[in-house]
Structure formats: C-alpha cells, structure tokens
Amino acid sequence: MLSTPHNFVLIPATSAQWPSETGTLKLCFRGHELLVTETGVSPFDVVDVDTSVDAIVVGRWNGQLVVTQALALDAPAPSGARWTSVRSLFGVMADDLVAIAGRAGQLLEWNRSHKYCGACATPTERDASERVRRCPACKLASYPRISPAMMCLVTRGSQILLARNVNFPPGRFSALAGFLEAGESIEDAVHREVREEVGVEVEKPKYFASQSWPFPNSLMIAFTAEYVSGELKPDGHEIVEADWFDAGNLPQLPPRISIARALIDDALLRLRDTPT
Ligand SMILES: [Zn+2]
After folding, report:
1. For the chain, first and last CA: distance in Å?
2. What pTM value is reported for the model?
3. Triad 266, 148, 113: Cα angle to 5°
C-alpha cells in the first residue's frame, strides 16, 4: 500500500529557486510518465536538467533533497533510460520510491493545472512558504487537490460482499467504492454508494485504513460495514455483478499492493470463525 515513506520529511515551500544540492534526487516527468533506468528499479539520474526552472521540492528522504520537474511532452529518453507510468513501477521499484514518485507526479499535475486563476484567469503565483498557488488579483488560493473516495467491504456473518466493476479485468471482484459527493460525510457516502451500487442497506461503518492514490489525486478511505437488509441488485452501470463469498469460495481478488486487498484479507481473517 502507498504510504509516507520512512525517513521522509515534507518540505512545504514551493520556491522554484531552490538551490540544487549535491546528491539531489531528481524526478523528471513527461506528462504522467517518470524517467527511469532501463530496469525501472530507480529514477534515472539526469545530470543536465536545470532544476531551478519551475522545479518543485517534494521533500527530504533519508536526508537527500528530492525535487521534481516536468519536461516537454516530447522529451526523448536519454541513453539507458525510458519513460513509464508510476503505476507500472509497483513491485519493480522500491515502495518508498514509488510513493515519492506518486507524490511528485501529483504535485506537478497541480502546478500544471493551476497556472491561471480559476475565477478570474489571472496568472497565479507560487507561495514561497506554503504549497499553494495564489491569484495576485482576486487572492484565490489553489492548493493541490485531493479527492476523497470511500471503499466499503460489506460483511454478513462470515461472508463478504464482492462486486465486479465494469472497468475491472475479467474475473476480478473487489469491495465497493466511490467518490464523495459535496456535503457528504464519509459515512454518508458509505451508505449511499452501497445502496446505489448493489441495493442493500448497511450499518456500523467501521474505519479500516486510508491510502493515497495519486493517479491523479484521490485518497481512498476504507471501511467495513455490516449488512442489514435488501436483496443484491447490481446497478448494471458501474457494477455488473455482485455476490456473497466466504474464505473457502473466493473469486479473483485485487493485487496485494492495493488497500482493497488489505481490507479483504483483514476481514476474512477476522470473520473466519464467525457463524453464518
Ligand atoms: Zn483570480
């Protein structure tokens, strides 16, 4: 699961004039693609990139300064390097580096998409002490956007409710999930999404864990909840199939790096001895 790397210190300032230090870890992006070594085990160390040009300081990791920068969309990969999505690096690059690269990509996306004020279209300016772009005309502040989403694993005795999203690979089932609507609490979203997607009512939503998912900017907040009533009725749009499963009868599950899998594994362990 993606989480804050060990020995990572956030540096909130966004000054583009940050001095380059010897040994700085430079993460170069081209759109959503990161420049990595051929094997993908580490970011490619670009020596001739000018990190004073609209670079973003991500933080300090094991004492090493981490900066990121967007290169031109048609920038070629130097010899010994290639461009790839950060998502494709799970299980290839060390988890801490993937997490840092995910943050870096999210910050670059924020910087790129808030160059102009969303209210009055004036070019915005980076704040020197806070991670925010401000409009000099109307003072609108644009922070990196984080979109909360909830995930819910519904339980019934020793069984869990798993569903097939229309976008899943064939055969894959997982917990239910959806983005929060304006004005909702996460608990409200749990009840609403479960009702909308499969037509059942739940109670006692219980927090499990959260995971940053910076592709591009969501925060997944995972819960379990207990079944109360209703017949399973997939909505047919987002959810094409849903059913009750137990530990001895499981479909194909999400990969182990996901919070969905951690949620499912934890619940199965807890429910193992629950009578149905
Ligand atoms: Zn403005």
Report:
1. 31
2. 0.85
3. 135
Q: What pLDDT score was predicted for residue 167? A: 93
Distance between Cα 139 and ligand 1 center (Å): 6
The Å distance, Cα 119 to ligand 1 centre, comes to 5
CB 130 within 8 A of CB 201: no
CA of 217 to the centre of ligand 1 (A): 23
Note the pLDDT of residue 275. 63
**Residue 40's pLDDT is what?**
94
Number of structural domains found in the chain: 2
- The whole-angstrom separation of Cα 199 and Cα 237 is 13
Domain boundary among 62, 94, 113: 113
C-alpha of residue 138 to centroid of ligand 1, in Å: 4
The pLDDT score that the predictor gives to residue 49 is 73
Last residue of a domain, one of 67, 95, 113: 113
AA letter at 10: L
Residues 264 and 151 in one domain: yes
3-state SS, one letter per residue, for 200-256 = CEEEEEEEEEEEEECCCCEEEEEEEEEEEECCCCCCCCCEEEEEEECCCCCCECCCC
The domain of 107 spans 8-113
* CATH code of residue 228: 3.90.79.10
Q: What angle do CA 64, 30, 17 make, to 5 degrees?
A: 45
**DSSP symbol at 116:** B
Q: CATH code at 44?
A: 3.90.79.20
- Please check the confidence at residue 276 and state whether its pLDDT lies above 70: no
| Ligand 1 center–CA 130 separation, angstroms | 18
